[in-house]
Each structure stands twice: as C-alpha cells, then as structure tokens.
Design goal:
2 copies of one chain form a homodimer. Chain A is of the alpha/beta class. Chain A has 13 helices and 15 strands. Chain A has a 6-stranded mixed sheet. Chain A has a 6-stranded mixed sheet with strand order 6-13-12-11-14-15. A 3-stranded mixed sheet of chain A has the order 5-9-10, with no helix packed on it. In chain A, a hairpin with a 4-residue loop joins strand 2 and strand 3. The radius of gyration of chain A is 21 Å and the shape is globular. At the A-B interface, strand 13, helix 6, helix 9 and helix 10 of A face strand 13, helix 6, helix 9 and helix 10 of B.
Chain lengths: ~325, ~325
C-alpha cells in the first residue's frame, strides 16, 4: 500500500530543525500521503550525514528515487547540509520561495529554503519559522500583524502585508531546559509532572513576570525559595519557572512601541500541542486577543507553496 | 611564627558558602592574624565532613584546640552542618547576632549564624549576606538605604535603620555560568578573554537591558546572532552576555516603587575584585550614584561583631 501511495507523491517536504526531523509525502493536490518523524535533527545529521538520513526516511516510505525534496530549517545553516543564506529584513516572504539553495545530488532535485536575517542594532536570525509564516499568513490581510511562534528560541515577528519588518528571538524554551537540568532549581523541579495552562501557579507566574519583567530572574529564584519556605511542590515549581519565562517573553514581545500602539488585530499564535495550550492560557490570562494557527500545518503549507514555486506546477 | 601568631588569636571567623571556604584568625583587637581560602564549600563539605575540613584548616594555622569559631553562610543551611534557621523580614540585624546555632563539639565553641527569610508573596532567602550587611552598615544612618550584593545569586536589600525590610535575589551569576557552559551560546563565548568594566560591548548591553529588561532573553540571543551576522568576537560575546544579565538585574533591583521614589542616598555596592569593577562601571554608565564597600572586609567585620556578641569580650 505504501508503494501505491508513494507513487502518487509529487514531492517530499522536510522540516529539518536543530534536534528534529519531519518529512511528509505530498501529492499534486497538496494532500499528505504519509509522514515520518524522528530526532535526527541537524546536530545528528552533521555527524551521520544529511543525505544518509534523508534517503533512509524516503526509502522507508518507498518514495521514488527521483522524487524532488523541499527542505526548510537548520539544514540550511552554515553548519548544516548546504548553506541557504538569508533574506534580509525588510523581507518579502515570496522572496523566500524564490531563493532556495540547490543541493548537489546525482538523482534527486533537492532544495533548501533560506532563513531571514535582521541586521543592525538588534541582530537576529530565523530558519524554519519563515516557512511557517508563509503557511500561516493570510494574503488577504494587508495591515500589520504580530506573530508569536513559541519554542526553544521563540520568535515574535511583525508582518506588514507580506513583508517581515522586524522580529526578535527569546531564549524561553532553552532557558527552561537549562535551568531545569543544570541550575540550583534542578532539585526543586525534579519529578515534576506535566502541568497544563490552567495550573494556578503557572497563571500567577505569567501575570507577575508580564507585569514586572525586570524581576524575571528574581521570580525564577522564588522557585527555590518557594520550595524552601512555602513547600512549593515539584510540579508547582516547574509551572512557576515556565510561567515566569513565558510571561517575561510576552512582555518583551509586546514591549516595542509598534505593538502596543498599533496592534488592533489579534496576535497570531503559531503553535501545536502543549506549547499551544500554555501560550493560549497565558494570552487569555493577560486579556490579550489571539488566534491560534497549528504550527505543523503552517510549515507544511509553507513547504507546499515553495514546492509549487521551485518544482513548477506539480 | 605561625605558632606565635595563632597564640594571640581570639577566635576564628569563617565564611562558608556553597562553593567556597574562607577562614580568618582574628585577635582580641579585631586584627587579622592569618587566613585560609579554599573551594571546600558546603557541597564538598557535605561529603567530606564539615568538622574534618574546618579542623584541617585550623591545624594548618596551628590554631589552639579550644579556639572558638564563628561561621556564616551555607554551613547553616538544612543541607549544611547544623541548620541555623532564619530571622524573618522585617529583620533587625542585631537579632542575627544573638540567634546563632550551636554546633555540638567536644572541645571547641562553634556557632553558625542564621540567615534571613522573606515570607509571603515574594519568598526569598539569604545566608552569608546578612553577615556582610552587619559589617557594611553604617549605624549612624537612620534612613532607608539600598544595598546591592552581586554574586551567583545577587541580593538587593532594603535597609531601614538597622532593619532589613525587604530583599530580592537575582540569578545573574548562575545564569551567566549556565548559559556560557550549556546553551547554544557556549560556542560564541568559548575562548573569551577576561574583559573589564570599560568594554564598550559590556556598557552598551548594560544600557540596553536596563532600558528594556523585558527584552533580556532576546538581548542574550543577540550574542549568538551578533556572532553570526556581525562577527562579534568571543570576548565581546561574553561581555554582551554579562552586561545584559547585570543590566536587567539592576533594572529589577531598582524596579520597586520604594527605590525609585525615595532613594536619595547612593546605592551601597558590597563587592570585591572583578565583580566590583563590573558593577561600578554599570552604575556609572547608568548615572546611578553609589559607594563601594569591600565584600571581604564586610563579612569579616560582621563575623567579628558576632564573635564579640557570642563569645563575650574577647
């Protein structure tokens, strides 16, 4: 059956991040025929070989040997497969579609989409999120919109029509991980259970950090002192750490005068699964209007747009 | 000679932190006769034995077997030698002097000073800094003062006369260490040389983070993107990371309405060595008036006051 399915595939779309690999087989109508997910991100692939990993997944789906492949994400970084460069801010998103790097391969047509760079006093970079934006944007909206894309390095992006006019990365996910594993708080959060966006300690931390982001690293320390003095449990400790980092991020993402003054449209939250739940709860607690767009669907739609542009009318 | 010196010692004063041990032999007039420093902090001592480590240092200085010992710091924590409890905020500093825990020892009189705890909505704890405050305060000042005590977990303390009315810990030093060693920025700061407070990247980061503390984790990310896009070197990367964390801390330490409105006295900076240099440069860059008090001298003076109270008129 896989064989029959794969024969109708028009291209493979790959979101290749630092620590994750996702591949979809997609037909000419844009339907997903099959998919693969693994932890073989750029870090793994830089050692094992990008081509080896890609071909093993394509073979597992019995994909034709000449099926073209469109890729976004860290595979296009300097330390990735082939450097795909950056489109500079102000960055018209359609330019991303036409600026893919070509991977030299004897059989397949393989392309990697570029990232977006912001040069100047607030240097910043993204790889992969530009493709999510391509899939998430509503071409009928011509005004200014603010996108929040949570993750290891959350991105807050200003879009004016089809143009990225500015963005900022926040180290929220990585700091949560670092502090949980390596800091004095590791004992406080050990054995924490998964909490959801309704956890009262999470919501209180969201509000406290949003209102006083300057106190963020102090509020993080109260995870430890709350355990010592108030018997804060491990799950509450993790919820307070997460809420503090997310609340401070939202304050930072909204800090720009541009956002506060002209934001009349809801924030566009591009997220999936648990992150979507936590950020939705945070925005609701802060009375910030928002719409959620599924991150998986967004990146797949963005890759499909790129495939159409790059490989022609498949 | 050591023997002659040690014979005139009235007591030993010990500052026993999480990762450091410092001991001074002090005579009846408060003069330092000799000293020892090592990395045998609470973490090491919890395994090797507190008594073993203390006695080895006293023996190295040929201290009399009945010399009394006054201790401050993490040796009094629950996971330390003997739990010395906390004096609660609002905490009159003289109460610290009279609340030492007794270590059961067959020969010596050994006491450990308590810490200070802030209970309620902003739980916080200190151990060791209360003794620095004892040594740093000016008993002739009756008004409100703000103390900044930089370190692994920097403390900002409000003192009204002799009473600690509130304080906040910021994870500045620990975050610098964590991010430098374990985050995506580890490559950017690798091989950084020691920079001083005059480094222009440090000063620019101080100002940026102080003005927009909500953007702190974004500014930290620009260490990485600055390396990618602007060729920021390793020393500049470390300077930007340090300046961002310290600038955000100062914004947080000053954030309380109390500080902004009523702070007419200079900030009292209790610090030594490189930390004193960096924070002095930061305060100067932000036009914040300050006086520096040497942290080593402050803790020694505080321990001497405690020895006089606890051991009597030695």
């Amino acid at each position: 059956m896989t064989n029959l399915i794969s024969k109708s595939a028009a291209y493979a779309a790959v979101d290749w991040g630092t620590s994750s690999f996702r591949l979809w087989l997609i037909d000419a109508e844009g339907n997903v025929l099959d998919e693969r997910r693994s932890g073989e991100g750029m870090t793994t692939a830089a050692k094992a070989g990008f081509s080896t990993i890609l071909e093993s997944h394509l073979m597992a789906l019995s994909a034709p040997t000449n099926l073209p492949v469109i890729i976004c994400g860290m595979a296009g970084a300097r330390q990735g497969w082939v450097e795909a460069g950056y489109v500079d801010v102000p960055a018209a998103l359609p330019t991303v579609l036409t600026s893919a790097a070509v991977v030299s391969d004897p059989v397949r047509d393989i392309r990697i989409l570029p990232g977006i760079a912001q040069r100047g006093s607030a240097p910043d970079v993204m790889r992969g999120e530009e493709t999510q934006l391509l899939g998430a944007r509503d071409p009928s909206v011509s005004g200014e919109q603010l996108f929040c894309m949570p993750g290891t390095h959350s991105k807050w992006v200003k879009l004016s029509g089809e143009t990225v006019t500015g963005f900022a990365s926040f180290m929220t996910g990585e700091l949560f991980d670092l502090i949980s594993k390596h800091s004095i708080l590791q004992h406080a959060v050990k054995d924490a259970e998964k909490f959801d966006g309704s956890h009262p300690v999470f919501l209180a931390a969201i509000k406290a950090a949003f209102e006083q982001p300057a106190r963020a690293t102090n509020l993080v320390f109260t995870v430890r002192s709350g355990q010592l003095l108030d018997g804060l449990d491990a799950t509450g400790a993790a919820a307070r750490l997460s809420g503090t980092l997310i609340g401070a991020e939202i304050a930072g993402g909204m800090a720009d005068g541009w956002q506060r003054k002209t934001l009349d449209a809801p924030i566009k939250l591009i997220a999936s699964g648990r992150l979507a739940d936590l950020y939705e709860a945070a925005f609701a607690a802060l009375d910030l209007p928002f719409n959620t767009i599924d991150a998986d669907e967004a990146v797949r739609r963005g890759l499909s747009q790129a495939a159409k542009t790059v490989f022609g009318n498949n």
